[in-house]
Design a protein that fits this description.
This protein folds into two domains: 266 residues, Aminopeptidase; 108 residues, Alpha-Beta Plaits (2-Layer Sandwich), CATH 3.30.70.360. 32% of the residues lie in helices and 24% in strands. The chain has eleven helices and 18 strands. Helix 1 crosses helix 11 and helix 2 packs across helix 5. The longest helix is centred in the first third of the chain and has 19 residues.
Length: 399
């Protein structure tokens, strides 16, 4: 892909607005918008809840960006896409609005801001980052009447990231394949670190089917799926290679129906993370070579490799640019980190699009009751995102 390359803008360029001051003055409105988004529960597996959340995000984004999104429904899951600006290098802003939290969580973990800490289900992962993206684009003229030319940006808000992006992956890869860069608004690493590398993710469902019988009267007539699965679990955990950074972890399991019945069915989920594609394929081959000990027990291996690894090398030009822009804005230069958790940034980097991840909220407690965001970091992160967008769209090298 080639783009016209105009002179690159920098934070020291006099045409650069005072993004940090503007972001700080907009902080009260930004916090209010975060509260409205966190206040709508969107568990990934509940398609109706995700659709309702998408309606709320669409309304918020329409008001802030000045145009309505396309609503893209794939296999019942709702995604949103905005296209702003015109010609020139295009940036993809990637967000998701689904969460791991079940309906009803807000009753015990309501949205709140106390002592500079923002809390609520999905606040850190990643609804704060979603709202930051809208505000960053507002700082660059989106939704305004000043006549400022809005950079060429696509905003994609998906609804199934937390379950592996089964319906949004094709959309993500399609947009990334023609973008100059992707900025992922997932939460930051420890201390606000930008995520330049991620492990690849593989997810499996191992199911054993045996034969039920009465556990007390005639256990010998059954085929114990639980025992067969237990043997397999002990094999599966041996597929890990900690020296190579490869984890293979049996997680959620389900065995049998009642306490006095030989279980006819047993399942376990397996989560695997690896730094290299070769390691992903090694684990995949080992998983598919599994066999039950009992000749009449049936075995099914579902799932497989989900996300490719995100190589830190692909992000280095963008990370260096982020450092230069941060200093120009009067902010500390960010640090980088590679992490075991996957995101949709794995997909964008996987199709060759330079990707910076973890540009969203600073805080902690993802997927836990302690989930929180540090309010003092929001304005600076928003200003840095705006600076990155403007600089890349103005032609700063991304490779």
């Amino acid at each position: 892909m080639t783009h016209p390359t105009p002179p690159a803008a920098t934070a020291a360029d006099p045409s650069f607005p005072d993004l940090l001051a503007a972001a700080e003055s907009a902080l009260p409105a930004l916090l209010g918008a975060i509260g409205s988004v966190v206040g709508v529960e969107t568990p990934s597996a509940d398609l109706a809840a995700v659709a309702h959340g998408a309606e709320q995000v669409a309304a918020l984004g329409t008001g802030m960006l000045g145009i309505a999104p396309e609503t893209l429904t794939v296999d019942g899951c709702t995604h949103l896409r905005w296209r702003l600006g015109g010609s020139g290098p295009r940036v993809l802003i990637l967000c998701h609005q689904d969460t791991v939290w079940p309906l009803g969580t807000l009753e015990r973990l309501p949205f709140a801001i106390r002592d500079g800490v923002l809390t609520g289900p999905g606040s850190f992962d990643m609804k704060t980052g979603l709202v930051m993206a809208f505000h960053a684009l507002q700082l660059l003229g989106a939704g305004g009447s000043s006549g400022t030319e809005v950079p060429a940006v696509t905003v994609l808000v998906t609804g199934d990231e937390e379950i592996g992006s089964p319906t949004s992956r094709a959309l993500i890869e399609q947009e990334a394949s023609t973008a100059a860069a992707t900025f992922v608004l997932e939460a930051s690493g420890d201390g606000g670190r930008i995520k330049t590398g991620r492990k690849g993710v593989s997810m499996y469902q191992v199911t054993v089917t045996g034969r039920a019988s009465h556990a007390g009267l005639e256990p010998e007539k059954g085929i114990n799926a639980g025992v067969e699965l237990a043997r397999l679990i002990l094999q599966i955990e041996q597929f890990a290679d900690l020296a190579a950074g490869t984890s293979v972890v049996p997680t959620a399991a389900s065995i049998g129906t009642t306490g006095n019945t030989v279980p006819a069915s047993a399942t376990v989920s397996v989560d695997s993370r690896a730094w290299t594609v070769d390691e992903q394929h090694r684990v995949d081959a080992a998983m598919r070579a599994l066999r039950t000990a009992h000749p009449e027990a049936a075995l099914e291996i579902g799932g497989g490799i989900n996300r490719p690894p995100m190589d830190p090398a692909q992000a280095q030009p963008l990370f260096e640019l982020a450092g230069e822009l941060a200093v120009g804005l009067g902010l500390p230069a960010p640090q980088e980190i590679s992490v075991g958790g996957g995101s949709d940034g794995n997909f964008t980097a996987g199709v060759g699009c330079p990707t910076l991840d973890g540009l969203g909220a600073v805080g902690g407690g993802a997927h836990a009751d302690t989930e929180h965001v540090l309010v003092a970091e929001i304005a600076g992160r928003t200003a840095l995102l705006a600076a990155l967008i403007r600089s890349v769209c103005a032609g700063s090298p991304t490779r």
